[in-house]
Every structure is written in C-alpha cells, then in structure tokens.
Amino acid sequence: MSPFVQIELLPLGKVLRVKRGTPLPDALFAQGVEFPCGGRGRCRGCKIKVLAGSLPITAEEKRKLSPAELDAGWRLACRGRAEGDLKIELAQWEAAILTDHSALDFTPQPGWGLAVDLGTTTLVAQLVDRQTGSVLGVRTALNAQAQHGADIMSRIEFALDGSHQGVLEHLTRQQIGALAADLLAERAADARPLESVIVVGNTAMHHLFCGLSLEPLALYPFEPASPGRQQFDAAQLGWDLPGNPPVQFLPCLGGFVGSDILAGLLATRLPQSERLAALIDLGTNGEIVVGNRERLLCASTAAGPAFEGARIAMGMRAATGAIAGVRVQNGRLQCRVLGNAAPRGICGSGLVDAVAAGLSLGWIRPNGRLANGDSLPLAGPVALNQRDVRELQLAKGAIAAGLRILLEQWGATKADLSQVFLAGAFGNYINHASARRIGLLDFPADQVRPAGNSALLGAKLALFDPPGHDHDYAAIRAKIRHVSLNEDERFQEIFAEEMLFPPD
User: For residue 141, which of 24, 25, 30, 238 has the smallest C-alpha distance?
Assistant: First the structure.
C-alpha cells in the first residue's frame, strides 16, 4: 500500500498528493478552505462534498449536518483524514485582501524596506524602495493561524489549551518569512540591501509573533504585559534574508488595540487634527479611536467575525458566488453576486445590505425579529435565518456602543465629529447607506472617509524612519488613553440599546 494518497479538488481542478492519514485541515487550508471554529467541529463553516472515496461520518457531523446532507456526501473537513484517494467538491474562496498604493510623504533613506500588516484573518507584505517610495512587490495571504480559529479569542483559547502558543508563533513567523523571501527573489536581478522590516497587528498578533505570553489577554483586565515595540534580527525569527535585517513589531496602544491602529493614526494623521475625528477598524475585533491633537481615547470591542461572513449559516468571504450587495427594487430583493456565478453564500457587505433591505420592507423588525417566519430568502439557495440577524446585531451593537462610550467620555456627540475614518477591507467595501440604515455608522455620507489599508500605509511610513527616530510613537502613546469598555458601568445598557435597529 502506497504511503501517499491523492485528493482531487473540484471545481479548482487541483490534485494534491499527501501522506496517508493526513488531517484534511492540513491539506485544505492552503487551498482556501476556512475553519472558523478552529477545527473543533462546532460549526458548519468547512463543509465539503465527497464525490469519490470515503470519509466516515463522525459524531460531530451527525449533530451539525442533516441526514439528507450526510446522504448527499457532505462532511466537515475539520473532522476528516485522507486515508484513501478522495474527490472533493469545495467552494473556491478568494481572499479579498486590501493592499495600499497611496502616495507617501517621506524622507528618502537608503536600501529597501518591507512593511507587513499581520491581520487576524489576512496578511499583506509590501517591498518598498526607500529611496523613491515606490512599491516593488506585494504578497497577500490568509493568515495560516486561521486553521486554529477564525477570531482572536479562539486563537487565544487554542494557544493556552495544551501549550499550543508555539504552534501559532511558528506558523506566523514562517509565513511572513516565506513572503519576504519570495518578494526578494522576485527582484533578485536588481537587489538592494533590505534595511528594515516593520510589522504591525493587533495585540494578540503582536504577542504571538513576538513570543510573548497570551495569558494576560485571557484574564481580566485583559491588558498586555509587554505592549512595547519589539525588535529582532531576521535570523532570530528563522529567516534567511540577505544582510540579516532588523525586524520591528511596532508597539500596542492598550488592551486589544494594537500597532495596526497606531499605524492607522500615522496614516490618517488624526493625532495632528485640530478638529475631533474618529478612526474605526471594522474587523473581527473592532477598534475605535476618538480624538484630536490634544488627546486621544481608544477602545476595542469584540465585534466577532460576522462582518467577514463567519458564524453566518451561509456566510463566506467576498469570493465567486458570494452575494455582496442587496437592494430593493419594486418591492423585491435584487442581489449582486460576485463572479457572475450562481449564488452559494453571502459575505459581510451583502449581509449588511440584506438586513438593511429587510428593515426597509418591514420583513425585519427593529428588535431584529424576522417578521415572516424563520427565514429570509435572498437568491437561489441562499437565505438568512434568525441567528444570522442576531449575529449582525451583536457585531453592530458592539461597535456602536464602543463609539458612543468614547464620545461620552470625551464630552462630545456624533455631531461633533468632523470626520470618521474607516479602516480595513470591510470598512472600504461596505455600503454606507446600508450601514447607516442598520445603525452601524449613523453619519452623513460626506462625514465618512474610507481610509484603505491604513495599517499597511502606517507601516510603510515607519520604514522611512532614520536610525534612532521613532516617528513620534512615544508622543502618540503619551496622549492616548485606553478605555476598557467592560469597566464602564453603562456598557451593557448601551450595548443592549445599540443592538436594536433604528425605526424607519
């Protein structure tokens, strides 16, 4: 018997050759299959259909999949092992990862630099010529840690359960090192010295990359023990890069507000603003900053992954077959499906649109209850259920409550904000009218400004710091105060209020 088996993936047309007995998550994650619950069999997010070969039905699959689904060959990829040849049908998930090509205001420096935005879900690396400011190459990827959980708390749980932190640390370092080596190899013919590597990310990514204990982030008051800037040389991280360049992970701001938000402040120049403004990063962990050049308040709130399509019954990323937009036309729902393909799921922007449309038609009540049964049909087999609406309510309620509390502590209201910067992919692709209709972003359109990948732009700006200069990180950190929302006695009350949808 051969020690290897083949896994044929449809509709990708790929054939993988793996060792017999290989867990399917190890084989399929690199192909874009996600494991939202970290491979624990708690959700249906990694469904695959077995067309040939055999995967035994597990107890978890009996609980999560219907008898009809099981008879049709549907399985949970996280529960299977490749004990024999398989032919599997899977959805091709194309990560919509936001890069940055903004013009830079910089002082030329010698050599090249590498800027890395290490997100919970995705990562982006850009090779930059520090003499001209031009981007020489870009690489994007799904964060390899995601096979152990879609959100931060799932990763922390995995890391602390059985001392698996080293697994996550290794995955991240190895993945970024490989992207760096690939970018340099692509430009080998005209190579310059790589003088600096700057990495930014949220507090959990900061601690995982830097090998710092996650325990303080799992226990009240959820404050990092070592939030400051961390520096390595490439060899310490296991990277074989020419010249062994220094690698810096920029400092966090407090709690779960990491250096990605610090970089966002650098990119938007909010700390230099005379007028009050806000920076909001709509991700699995929503971060908010309110302030101006006098002082800054920041907070993080567990929005959850609903904005990215996770924990939604038919949720998926913005990929072929995803409903990405919904509008009302002649009293009916009109859905925009990515890739001009048959609908097979819904992504975050489509979810916000669908609920906004349902509210306008009276099919969803302000308290979030579906008015016509337990399902809201959208297109083809795709529908929203009551739990999907609740997941969106939890996410939008957390963001809205966090912003409201920061404004109250500042002594201001929404009307006092001159601008609201939206960071991250979801914040840049969301329909602002729909976001306002559900009460997520209750601001006039001209007040909201998409900031692109502000974390990556801020990391690039840091590449141009001359030796000994810290781009005023200390000055920004000195004027910012982290607000722990769970310590605000009104948080639960405000959160409950903000979960409601605005009346028509």
Answer: 30
First to last CA, the chain: 66
User: Of 416, 419, 398, which is closest to residue 407 (Cα–Cα)?
Assistant: 416
Dist. CA 384–CA 377, nearest whole Å: 6
- The fold of 112-269+453-468 is Nucleotidyltransferase; domain 5 (3.30.420)
State the amino acid at position 334 in one-letter form.
Q
Radius of gyration of the chain (CA): 23
Q: Whose structure tokens read 């699959």?
A: 61
Q: What is the value of pTM for the model shown?
A: 0.78
- CA torsion 189-190-191-193 (nearest 10°) is 160
For residues 421-449, one letter each, b for 16 or more C-beta atoms within 10 angstroms of the residue's C-beta and e for the rest, the string is bbbbbbbbbbbbebbbbbbbbebeeebbe
| Nearest C-alpha neighbor of 421 from the set 289, 274, 302, 299 | 289
Q: What angle do CA 35, 348, 26 make, to 5 degrees?
A: 15
Question: CA 263, CA 460: separation in Å to the nearest integer?
Answer: 9
Identify the three-state secondary structure at position 462: helix
pLDDT in tens, 333-379: 999 998 677 898 898 899 999 999 999 999 999 999 999 888 999 99
Rounded to whole angstroms, the Cα distance separating 345 from 179 reads 30
| Residues listed for the chain | 504
Give the pLDDT confidence score for residue 472 in this predicted structure. Answer: 66
Q: What is the pLDDT of residues 441-472, one digit of tens each?
A: 988 888 999 888 899 999 999 999 876 565 56
Does residue 18 contact residue 4 with C-beta atoms inside 8 Å?
Answer: yes
42 vs 247: CA distance, rounded Å: 37
pLDDT in tens, 220-237: 778 888 888 899 999 999
Is-contact 281 261, C-beta < 8 A?
yes
CB 287 within 8 A of CB 202: yes
Write down the domain spans for the chain.
4-89, 112-269+453-468
Q: CA 496, CA 401: separation in Å to the nearest integer?
A: 9
Identify the CA nearest to 148 among candidates 256, 26, 284, 65: 26
4-89 under CATH 3.10.20.30, yes or no = yes
CA 350, CA 331: separation in Å to the nearest integer? 18
Q: Looking at the DSSP assignment, which residues form a beta bridge with residue 124?
A: 117, 140
CA distance 68 to 334: 30
Does residue 92 have a pLDDT over 60? no
Tell me if residue 345 falls in helix, strand or coil: strand
As a whole number of angstroms, the distance between CA 307 and CA 398 comes to 12
How far is 135 from 481, CA to CA, in rounded Å? 34
Q: Are 370 and 386 in contact (CB under 8 A)?
A: yes
In this prediction, residue 116 has a pLDDT band, given cuts at 50, 70 and 90, of very high
